[in-house]
Write a structure and sequence with these properties.
6 helices, globular
Length: 173
């Protein structure tokens, strides 16, 4: 079982940042995997797409997320908010069952970003969404960009904070 799943919502700098988080977790003795959301073939969530049926890869994504007790989400800021690939994946996951919060409830999550636009509005928007879904968002977040690259010490600290939080019960597995 993976102790920590690092979710990348872009295949550029945030995928590289996700790799750094996974490496830091492994260095601290945790089993960590990286999930690149951009490599999945999930269609954009819309009511019409939902009426057409669940995407074939969605159950596997849900199982992968449910099996990991803790997540790090590495996402860029898109137009002052959450990138579409992440928003769409969360929307699909939230309509899979009877309880849209069950996958997120009590899930410890770290928010990290490498963004050209600063990243603070992404962190705020994502924190609000995850808190609404019931996640335990770690108080400290990582905001980095070309002028202010992520420090290894900050990544190590966030991994330590994350693994110190209790994992949620495995109801959805």
């Amino acid at each position: 079982m993976t102790d920590l799943l690092v979710i990348a919502a872009s295949n550029g700098e945030n995928l590289a940042l996700a790799g750094r988080f996974a490496a830091a977790a492994r260095h601290q003795g945790e089993d960590a995997d990286v999930l690149d959301l951009t490599s999945l073939d999930l269609p954009l969530f819309t009511p019409r797409a939902q009426a057409a049926g669940m995407p074939a890869g969605l159950p596997a994504l849900e199982r992968q997320l449910a099996a990991a007790p803790r997540w790090v989400i590495c996402a860029p800021e898109y137009n002052g908010s959450i990138p579409p690939v992440l928003t769409s994946a969360i929307a699909w996951l939230s309509v899979m069952g009877d309880d849209f919060r069950s996958l997120f409830n009590n899930r410890p999550v770290v928010i990290a970003t490498h963004s050209g636009g600063g990243g603070h509005t992404l962190a705020t928007a994502l924190r609000l969404q995850l808190a609404h879904l019931g996640a335990q968002v770690v108080g400290r977040q990582l905001v980095s960009n070309g002028a202010n690259p992520a420090k290894d010490s900050s990544i190590d600290d966030l991994v330590q904070r994350l693994i110190s939080l209790p994992a949620p019960s495995a109801k959805r597995l």
